[in-house]
Amino acid sequence: MFAVTLALYAEGSTDGAFLPEIILQTTEEILLDLGYSHSEMNIELPYCRWEKPTDTVKRDECILRVAQETPGYDILIIHSDGDDRGYEQTIAELFQPGQESVLKVARDRRNEVCEHLVPIIPVRMTEAWMLADPDALCRVLDIEIKKVSTLGIPPKAKLVEKEPNPKTTLNHIINRVYPSASTSKWQGLKNDLYEGLGSEISLKRLSEVPSYQQFVQDMTAALQRLHFIQK
């Protein structure tokens, strides 16, 4: 048996609720598709941190700090929402500066940082991925599928990235389903939704989304570099 130990740096707490299970299941699926069995692997993600950059603490410093807190981990996954940027621009602006800072430290103090970084970049934002599987959304919200079809969800998963504001769409769905919820109950429902969808969402549906396909490619390449996968 071999172990794969992962860490996640996310932009916000809701991303930190949704993404860990997606990352774990994706890593497992990559290895299963290549012929490994469940009994041969142990995949863990024991570290998840979210921290917004500030005027005094830049994003590359946040990434470096997380890498310094996860020495000995196999892969550190760096989450960035694509927003109105494409993948390449998001990589250049939000991932590479942090990666360069980590690699610079790794050259001098190799065992003191996790130097294997992988980007995860939903377009436009994490909420777009959450709209990719209406069946899972219905199960978590405990509603019938016919109701969700009237709430503005794209008919095909590959179209979710064309939503101008997926977070607004998701909030609209929660408000329609629970119109009388208090502010505290509404926030609780939202937190439960993000975490629940991470476990319930179909990777088959999600694999229709281009930015998720890119994450699978990047994760596969990282596992190859670390020799968990033989090229």
Topology:
Layout: E1 2-10, H1 13-33, E2 41-50, H2 59-69, E3 75-79, H3 87-108, E4 117-120, H4 126-130, H5 134-141, H6 145-148, H7 166-177, H8 183-200, H9 203-206, H10 210-225
Parallel strand pairs: 1-2, 1-3, 3-4
Helix pairs in contact: 1-8, 2-3, 5-8
Question: What does this entry look like structurally?
Answer:
The chain has 231 residues and is of the alpha/beta class. The protein has two domains: 2-125 and 209-225, Rossmann fold (3-Layer(aba) Sandwich); 127-203, no CATH class. The chain has helices at 13-33, 59-69, 87-108, 126-130, 134-141, 145-148, 166-177, 183-200, 203-206, 210-225, and strands at 2-10, 41-50, 75-79, 117-120. It has a four-stranded parallel beta sheet, with helices on both faces. The protein is globular. The two termini are 19 Å apart. 38% of the residues are buried. The model has no long low-confidence stretch (mean pLDDT 91).
- What share of residues are in beta strands? 5-15%
- Write down the overall mean pLDDT: 91
> Within the CATH hierarchy, at the fold level, what is the topology of the largest domain?
Rossmann fold
Order of helices and strands: EHEHEHEHHHHHHH
Largest sheet: 4 strands, parallel
Specify the overall morphology. Answer: globular
Label the CATH architecture of the largest domain: 3-Layer(aba) Sandwich
Based on secondary structure, the structural category is: alpha/beta
DSSP strand tally: 4
- What is the class of the largest domain in the CATH system? Alpha Beta
Radius of gyration (Å): 18 Å
